[in-house]
Design a protein that fits this description.
The complex is a heterodimer.
Chain A: E1 26-32, H1 38-46, E2 63-69, E3 72-78, H2 90-101, E4 106-112, H3 116-129, E5 133-138, H4 140-145, E6 149-150, H5 152-159, E7 163-165, H6 174-185, H7 200-213, H8 223-232, H9 235-245
Parallel strand pairs in A: 1-3, 1-4, 4-5, 5-7
Antiparallel strand pairs in A: 2-3
Helix pairs in contact in A: 7-8
Chain B: H1 9-27, H2 31-50, E1 51-52, H3 60-68, H4 74-117, H5 122-160, H6 162-176, H7 183-192, H8 194-200, H9 207-216, H10 226-237, H11 244-270, H12 294-329, E2 331-332, E3 335-336, H13 337-351, H14 356-364, H15 372-383, H16 393-401, H17 406-418, H18 423-433, H19 436-467
Antiparallel strand pairs in B: 2-3
The chains are: A alpha/beta, B mainly alpha.
Chain lengths: 257, 468
């Protein structure tokens, strides 16, 4: 959102940052570290003209666009860049809130092929929130030019989610990306991603908490993720979780047993 | 512990508290640290298994960065880039500007002839041709060429990846001013549009530093104000020099630098008074240099920047031109309405080294800074004898006949740089801060600074002229 005169106010509070699905069969969001080319992927998929620039922080609010695949409408949300799912700035919060509470059908994590290690941290964190992830290995041409050799198949089998190499600025790899997004959105492929295993004592505690959480309606949130937030006492996230888990019913729901 | 029916997570939270203590005792550190350590280890593991890093090669990015962000060459290279861009914009814009002006005024003669043939009433001709059409012509002739050249050049720097290096260079100065280094990026956005710059301040985490960035963003001239700066510099300040364009570019660059200096000064004062605090640390990634997508830049800068700005200017300038013509031709007593307004503002205007008409133009241009010049021309022309207007050079003659000197032009530039944000920007500030008080503060702070600086310049030069 640069150099376009903003006509709408910012979407800062929680309720605004979680739009409902409208006029689309599926909602897909683009997440990723700053400056990995999310907006370029967004433009390439939707044909929209979101401003792009070679510096971190070009996108500060979420932008929505539509594209068709297999006769269905897919809404694509371009989220601001974020280094982690433990946000510490308003625009990182927008990204985290949408992934956790916006009920996207698929999260496409756009990663920079030339800085993969750092980018993988975010991928692993997103996988804890939702298994419906497609990794878009962007700027692959640049990484090759700089001498990186990436075993995409190995990477996909390590993460156990689809990994699609792309060079979005030239349009290469996008058809494949669309296909994998579709497969994931239409549940043709059910993913069981490879989650981070924590030290034994921590995993043990998580299990106990997850059992505790089965008694509560979490409105579709991942139990493991909620348990992690409980365990580290992430107060900001817990407030949102409480708010979110009551959204559909308006009151607390307790399942017996 | 709270009652369970009030909070479904309460039971789990209580359980978590006990478990957390257990985990922390065993692991010997914070849960968050344990989580992060495991995440990093896993990421590293996957990375090692699937990526072969390049053999030692010459790291060109690093070498270029060493030069562009070096202590000795960093600042001069930034100034050079700014100067060169402005110089190219001014030089290359001269010819098309002149051409556009000439053709607009040629068409105006034909339009007038048509109105005369149809026996249209004088007021209709005045309102449509001398009011609306003329201000449109001015806006397009003065604004379009510099924008169409400046924006692609700026886009080129942006696409290359130079902007984060600028932020890196300026970081130390921002630290000293008690502000955030990322403010440089929001300022770069302000170059395009202050409303966008204010919104871009979201990349700053700390509320205090974000507020500093929002309040001072207006000191960067947006593209609505750039044409005025360029017009003033090329019309007045550079007269009599051999290399007119070069001098004009230097003057505009100096005025922009002055805006940067004021930004630092105001940030410094604010961070020691109203917005006290210690600047926070941040990490800024220096992205790799990328080959710019030239066609993309040309198309995007035209469609996303040049045309929207021009359209906005045209939308505001057309009615404003008509209204100002009416105001200039409705008389109360023996003076028209514009004249009344101007004479009311005249004492303040002359204190600031300008006149009432100029101040009135700035006030009337509140919806969009782009129309200061057309409104000013219109109000000058509506009063005095009709000048034959066939070129931009005639503008200089008109201003000179109104008693303008280089001091007037300088004050117009400075006032334009520093005065209150336009309507759109103020609205954005309100949306971002959700505070009427801070929105007012933004208007008062900027205008106060503008008045103060203009008074100092005018009175200072007056004293100097008396002495020598």
């Amino acid at each position: 959102m640069c150099f376009i005169f903003p006509t709408v106010g910012p979407k800062m509070n929680h309720r605004d940052s979680v739009p409902r699905h409208t006029a689309a069969d599926y909602t897909i969001c683009l997440a990723g570290n700053p400056n990995t080319g999310k907006s370029t992927v967004f433009n390439a998929l939707t044909g929209l003209k979101q401003h792009t620039g070679n510096w971190p922080g070009t996108t500060v609010s979420q932008t929505r666009g539509l594209y068709q695949y297999a006769g269905k409408n897919l809404a694509l949300i371009d989220l601001p860049g974020t280094y982690s799912m433990l946000p510490n700035s308003p625009e990182e919060k927008i990204a985290r809130d949408f992934i956790c509470f916006g009920r996207p059908d698929v999260v496409v994590v756009v990663v920079d092929a030339a800085c993969l290690e750092r980018n993988l941290n975010l991928v692993l964190q997103v996988l804890e929130i939702t298994p419906k992830v497609v990794v878009c290995l962007n700027l692959i041409d640049e990484a090759k030019r700089r001498g990186f050799s990436i075993d995409v198949r190995r990477l996909a089998s390590e993460l156990k989610v689809p990994v699609v190499p792309t060079a979005a600025n030239r349009g290469s790899g996008l058809d494949c990306l669309k296909k994998h997004i579709w497969n994931s959105a239409s549940k043709k492929i059910e993913a069981w991603p490879n989650l981070v295993q924590y030290p034994e004592v921590l995993e043990c505690s998580l299990q106990q908490l997850e059992v505790e959480l089965t008694r509560i309606s979490l409105n579709g949130l991942s139990k493991r993720w909620v348990a992690l937030r409980l365990l580290e006492d992430d107060k900001a996230a817990l407030t949102l979780i409480k708010h979110y888990s009551t959204l559909s019913t308006g009151r607390w729901v307790c399942n017996e047993g | 512990m709270r009652v369970e029916s009030q909070d479904p997570l309460a039971a789990a939270a209580g359980r978590a508290k006990a478990l957390r203590r257990q985990v922390e005792d065993l692991e010997g550190t914070d849960v968050r640290d344990t989580l992060v350590a495991a995440l990093y280890a896993k990421a590293e593991d996957i990375y090692q298994n699937s990526v072969i890093e390049p053999q030692q090669r010459v790291d060109w990015d690093q070498k270029v960065d060493d030069i562009l962000t070096s202590k000795v060459l960093g600042y001069p290279l930034m100034l050079l880039a700014l100067g060169v861009i402005l110089w190219i914009s001014i030089t290359a814009a001269n010819y098309p500007s002149e051409l556009l002006a000439t053709s607009f005024f040629a068409i105006e003669k034909h339009l007038s002839a048509v109105f005369a043939k149809l026996n249209a009433p004088g007021w209709l001709h005045g309102f449509v041709v001398l009011g609306i059409y003329r201000s449109l012509g001015w806006v397009i002739a003065v604004m379009l060429p510099p924008m169409a050249i400046f924006f692609p050049l700026f886009g080129l720097l942006e696409d290359l990846g130079y902007l984060p290096r600028v932020a890196f260079n300026l970081d130390r100065l921002f630290q000293k001013a008690g502000a955030h280094g990322k403010q440089a990026l929001t300022m770069a956005m302000g170059f395009g549009c202050n409303a966008a710059g204010v919104m871009a301040a979201r990349i700053i985490d700390s509320p205090r530093e974000r507020m500093l960035a929002i309040l001072t963003n207006n000191f960067m001239p947006c593209n609505g104000r750039f044409p005025l700066l360029i017009a003033m510099a090329s019309l007045f300040l550079s007269g009599g020099f051999a290399r007119v364009n070069l001098i004009a570019a230097l003057i505009v660059a100096a005025v922009v630098l002055f805006g940067v200096a004021i930004t630092f000064l105001v940030s410094y004062i604010l961070s020691r008074t109203l917005l006290r605090g210690v600047p926070s640390f941040f990490t800024l990634e220096l992205p790799p240099y990328r080959r710019p997508q030239i066609m993309q830049i040309l198309v995007r800068s035209l469609l996303d920047r040049t045309l929207p700005v021009l359209l906005r200017a045209v939308k505001v300038a057309a009615p404003a031109g008509g209204i100002v013509w009416i105001l200039a031709n409705l008389h109360i007593g023996d003076l028209n309405i514009i004249g009344h307004g101007a004479s009311f503002l005249d004492p303040l205007g002359s204190l600031l080294g300008m006149d009432g008409y100029i101040l009135l133009a700035f006030i009337l241009a509140f919806p969009a800074n782009e129309i200061v010049l057309p409104v000013l021309l219109m109000s000058y022309l509506g009063v005095g004898a009709m000048l034959e207007f066939d070129s931009l050079a005639a503008m200089k003659t008109l201003f000179a006949s109104r008693g303008w000197t280089w001091v007037t032009a300088l004050n117009v530039m400075i006032f334009s740089m520093l005065h209150f944000p336009c309507g759109t920007t103020l609205l954005t500030i309100y949306n971002e801060t959700k505070s009427r008080l801070w929105t007012c503060a933004a208007a008062v702070l900027t205008t106060g600074t503008a008045v103060l600086v203009c008074v100092v310049i005018t009175q200072g030069i007056a004293v100097l002229q008396k002495l020598f």
